[in-house]
Write a structure and sequence with these properties.
The complex is a heterodimer.
Chain A lengths: L36 E9 L2 E11 L2 E11 L7 E14 L7 E7 L9 E9 L4 E10 L8 E3 L24 E12 L4 E7 L5 H8 L13 E10 L2 E8 L3 E11 L32 H17 L3 E7 L3 E7 L6 H15 L6 E8 L2 E9 H7 L4 H7 L1 E3 L1 H4 L12 E16 L2 E18 L2 E13 L19 H4 L6 E14 L2 E9 L4 E10 L6 E12 L12 E2 L2 E2 L3 E10 L4 E9 L5 E10 L5 E9 L3 H4 L5 E9 H5 L6 E6 L16 H5 L4 H6 L7
Parallel strand pairs in A: 15-16
Antiparallel strand pairs in A: 1-2, 1-13, 2-3, 3-4, 4-5, 5-6, 6-7, 7-9, 8-9, 9-10, 10-11, 11-12, 12-13, 14-15, 16-17, 17-18, 19-20, 20-21, 21-22, 22-23, 23-24, 24-25, 25-28, 26-27, 28-29, 29-30, 30-31, 31-32, 32-33
Helix pairs in contact in A: 2-3
Chain B lengths: L1 H15 L4 E2 L7 H12 L8 H14 L6 E6 L4 E11 L2 E6 L7 E5 L2 E6 L5 E5 L1 H9 L3 E10 L5 E20 L2 E14 L2 E10 L4 E9 L3 E7 L2
Antiparallel strand pairs in B: 2-3, 2-13, 3-4, 4-5, 5-6, 7-8, 8-9, 9-10, 10-11, 11-12, 12-13
Helix pairs in contact in B: 1-2
The chains are: A mainly beta, B alpha+beta.
Chain lengths: 696, 229
């Protein structure tokens, strides 16, 4: 685009063979994807397949997770599977005369078969042409290297050990070489690229010479060429030639988390109801039972149309207070905005103050107060004006929360839904899954009391093919997944009674007892301290658990495992902090399931629209050798709000955690309804972040 | 294409998250998701049909009181059209919804200038139109600031500020619905970074905006708003 601003220049939605932002083929560039872009790339040439997920964490920082399979690289495996992580940091933005400069680490954690580091510069010459040049180390310094410094451990299978650790002494060490290339956009949809690669594919060639390994790779030329076609928005297909001897292809799918796949299909809210000024002083309705009943009836009818659940309503001469539960909108701000407008349309004119208390799991979480005349005055003003006029208080500080409507409890909710259970990164087959059908019921007995039962049966899948026995020398707290997974069922996935309570301002508690999760039964207790307007929270959790039978029915199994005894007690203290910029961090410290002591750090980028991407690492007091392959527990997690995909309002979200390896160290109990997640959305920092939705 | 993503996404969530049936009415189920896929693949065929619009307008004029405000709106880019009635007023603001249907989409105007839309994406949340309104209704020329606020995909209100030059055009006779009177063309030429549009208002001698063609937002483009009485 002519005159495109420099601020967002030099971004690309293309990715290279490693699935990182780049218009080139095998080589990196200094380009970044647009902020919060997520891409999945699968690239293949004979014998070599790489699948990579990349997220643009910040405009200047990208992170990638990759799973690659190389046929016959090692004599020990038919296909050698490997997991790797990359990061790239843009150091300098492009200017009119100077290129953008970035530094990157490829496969910086783990065994390092793909490891390399680089400093790279890219300059946009005109609207169609981009030129890149850089210096690489490791793999990227292996062809025609011009110098070498310090010592770098070459990759060998012998050196793999437990893997999973940082190799600080190797980064930017050893031989270094130049690489470069250019990308030219022929049309908006078609582009070509050519590069001079500094990767000699040395290890592949060496293994090709090794008669025991089945790999066959022949590096004939440093020149690679590619042709990329944009098949549709967010879909790129590329054909490329590599090393003068291979032809391959890649497909990349990308989306931007800030741009919903489907435009919102939410219905328009009701407009604010205006009062006749003459009616302000009319208190006649307070003596008229029928008028009162009509207000209440109209309110609950209109609120039901907004699909917001009404738990209780108190009306006095000058104020109305609604107790609601929002099970529909991602943003509580939107539920508040709609409920306030329904109040304005249904409450007698003399009522000047509206309060709404948001409740979850029977706990009142926050009370938002609005003057009715402010609501009338600010309907057509910027959203920030309404935020300034709203007062959000802790419901317990506020006092008098409405009592549940007669007949509200007990309330039964149920659903029947399929779900998938996966088993990933098994060297025999990297991805296996079962699809199961689960019936679930939640019986809300009274304020904060919830009985939950969930049972599932297997519909189809291949998890029963997982034969990998645990080789863990720690108590087998998680590594026996292969024994739990194949159960066709019906299994009891959860059968618990939980009590959520509030004991005072800023304080929340939960006690859950029963069959807590697939592998453990017991009792879990938690307390959380979180002021309503605070970005900081502290929590503590204590669990008393016993491992369940593999058939996941009512029985328990012995705590004795080949790796040791599973302790009964575990628990953590936690600190949660929400940085105002969309990032949040959590630290859990304490005793893990296997009895190991340590701490977990989680860092995530959370979007107001419900998306969440994060990474975690847990270090406990077991050595890397005791922990086993991977050295310590780590992984990434994400949440996808369904409303982003389909446009319909819903709080339903798909969340998952991906670990490169599932071992026994650093494992926590999977208890449902941890307090921070229940409480946080209704508190001021979250409500304010989504306040744009108040008038929507 | 957007719907490739929708399909990929739905395929995943259909097996991973959506209930087949549920007690909670607000939950999406496999069935509702299936319907969404169907509409994504075969969107209902819309077209601008002036004859149909005017027939509905006549019906609306005949069946409502003489003081009840009525108007028509057309969005050529999305081929949407409706006869509108006012469902609520708030001072100078009127909120309009389709006459004769229970369609939950609204447009808000301030003395004839569109300040908000709901459920007509992208959501125009609010707009500061006083400068334009003052000049246009007095049929005067000048330069003013014009602000429109949109909701982005991450729940943030994005403010788009534009500078507009208001100028007079020719006299034109307006004959639409029950309106039959002379009016003056008033143009408002607005330029900002990445945006440029010219709005047109037909203003009566008393300063009432009888008809207009207004730029409502990116993707949606222009709307034609015409009073019927």
């Amino acid at each position: 685009m002519p005159g495109a601003s420099q601020a967002d220049s030099l971004t690309t939605t293309k990715t290279n063979n490693y699935g990182v932002p780049s218009g080139l083929i095998d080589m990196p560039t200094a380009e970044m994807a647009p902020d919060s872009e997520f891409s999945l790339t699968v690239s293949h040439f004979p014998g070599y397949t790489k699948s990579t997920a990349t997220f643009q964490i910040l405009p200047w920082l990208s992170g990638s997770f990759r799973y690659s399979g190389i046929d016959g690289l090692s004599p020990a495996f038919r296909i050698y599977y490997d997991r790797s992580f990359d990061v790239r940091i843009r150091l300098l933005e492009e200017t009119d005369y100077l290129p953008a400069v970035a530094v990157g680490l490829q496969d910086f954690l783990g065994t390092g078969v793909l490891s390399g580091e680089y400093i790279v510069a890219t300059k946009q010459i005109n609207n169609r042409l981009r030129v890149t040049g850089g210096i690489g180390w490791g793999r990227l310094g292996s062809y025609n290297s011009f110098a070498s410094w310090r010592n770098r451990q070459p990759f060998t299978f012998a050196g793999v050990g437990t893997g999973g650790n940082f190799r600080f002494s190797d980064y930017f060490s050893g031989r270094m070489a130049f690489f470069g290339g250019l990308t030219y956009d022929i049309t908006d949809k078609i582009s070509v690229s050519a590069e001079y690669s500094s990767d000699a594919y040395e290890f592949e060639e060496r293994q090709t010479a090794n008669p025991a390994a089945a790999i066959s790779f022949n590096h004939k030329s440093p020149w690679n060429f590619g042709l990329t076609y944009r098949a549709a928005e967010g879909v790129d297909v590329r054909l490329f030639s590599l090393a003068g001897s291979e032809i391959g292809a890649s497909v990349s799918l990308s989306l931007n988390v800030k741009k919903p796949a489907t435009a919102s299909l939410e219905q328009a809210p009701l407009p604010v109801g205006l009062r006749d000024p003459g009616a302000f002083k009319d208190l006649g309705w307070t003596l008229d039972k029928n008028a009162q009943a009509k207000s209440v009836r109209d309110f609950s009818t209109l609120l039901a149309q907004e699909q917001i659940e009404l738990i209780g309503l108190d009306i006095t001469e000058r104020s109305a207070h609604a107790l609601i539960e929002n099970n529909i909108y991602i943003a509580d701000a939107q539920a508040l905005g709609r409920t306030f407008r329904v109040l304005s349309r249904t409450m007698p004119a003399s009522i000047e103050t509206f309060h709404i208390t948001v409740s979850r799991n029977g706990m009142p979480l926050s009370t938002t107060t609005f003057r009715r005349s402010d609501l009338e005055r600010l309907e057509n003003a910027p959203a920030r004006d309404a935020l300034a006029a709203a007062v959000i208080t802790d419901s317990l500080r506020f006092g008098d929360v409405p009592a549940p409507l007669p007949g509200y409890y007990p309330k039964l909710e149920w659903k029947i839904a399929p779900f998938a259970r996966t088993y990933t990164f098994d060297p025999d087959q990297p991805f296996r899954a079962d699809v199961r059908l689960r019936a679930r019921a939640d019986w809300h007995l009274g304020k904060g009391w919830i009985v939950t039962g969930a049972s599932s049966v297997k519909l189809f899948g291949n998890l029963d093919h997982v034969t990998r026995p645990s080789n863990s020398i720690m108590p087998h707290v998680r590594s026996n997944a292969a024994l739990y997974n194949p159960e066709a069922g019906p299994t009891i996935d959860q059968l618990t009674i939980a009590k959520y309570s509030r004991h005072g301002p800023n304080l929340y508690s939960r006690v859950t007892a029963g069959y807590l999760e697939m592998m453990y039964a017991g009792v879990s207790g938690e307390v959380l301290w979180k002021p309503v307007d605070s970005r900081l929270a502290f929590g503590a959790e204590v669990n008393f658990v016993h491992p369940r039978d593999y058939d996941q029915l009512f029985g328990l199994r012995s705590r004795q495992t080949p790796g040791g005894v599973i302790p009964q007690w575990n628990g953590h203290v936690s600190a949660y902090y929400d940085f105002q910029n969309g990032f949040d961090a959590t630290v859990h410290a304490g005793r893990y399931l296997a009895g190991d002591w340590g701490a977990t750090l989680e860092v995530a980028r959370s979007f107001s629209n419900g998306w969440r991407f994060g990474a975690f690492a847990t270090k406990t007091n077991v050595s890397a050798a005791t922990f086993g392959e991977g050295s310590f527990d780590k992984g990434i997690f994400f949440s996808v709000p369904l409303t982003w995909l389909v446009g319909q309002p819903t709080r339903q979200t798909y969340s998952d955690t991906i670990r490169p390896l599932q071992r026994d160290g650093g494992q926590r109990l999977n208890v449902e309804g941890r307090l921070y997640d229940v409480v946080n959305d209704a508190h001021r920092p979250s409500v304010a972040e989504s306040w744009g939705k108040f008038w929507r | 294409m957007i719907f490739t993503r929708l399909l990929v996404g739905l395929a995943v969530i259909a097996t991973l998250a959506l209930p087949g049936c549920t007690s909670r009415k607000s939950d999406l189920t496999v069935v509702t998701a299936g319907k969404l896929v169907k509409t994504a693949i075969r969107p209902p065929k819309l077209k601008l049909d002036p004859v149909k619009l005017s027939r509905t307008a006549q019906k609306a004029l005949a069946s409502t009181g003489p003081d009840e405000p009525l108007a028509t709106i057309q969005f050529p880019s999305v081929k949407g059209q409706s006869v509108l009635r006012v469902i609520e007023t708030n001072g100078p603001y009127s909120t309009w919804a389709a006459w004769g249907t229970s369609d939950r989409r609204t447009i808000t105007t301030k003395n004839g200038i569109i300040t908000a839309t709901r459920a007509i994406p992208p959501d125009l949340m609010s707009a500061d139109v006083d400068g334009v309104l003052a000049l246009v209704s007095r049929r005067e020329e000048g330069t003013v600031l014009y602000t429109q606020r949109y909701l982005d995909g991450n729940h943030q209100e994005i403010e788009a500020k534009t500078s507009c030059v208001v100028s007079r055009g020719y006299e034109q006779f307006v004959e639409y619905g029950q309106i039959s009177q002379p009016a003056l063309q008033m143009f408002s030429s607005c330029v900002a970074k990445g945006r440029q549009f010219v709005d047109l208002y037909l203003v009566s001698g008393s300063g009432r905006i009888l008809q207009s063609r207004q730029w409502v937002g990116p993707e949606l483009g222009f709307a034609t708003f015409q009073l019927l009485r």
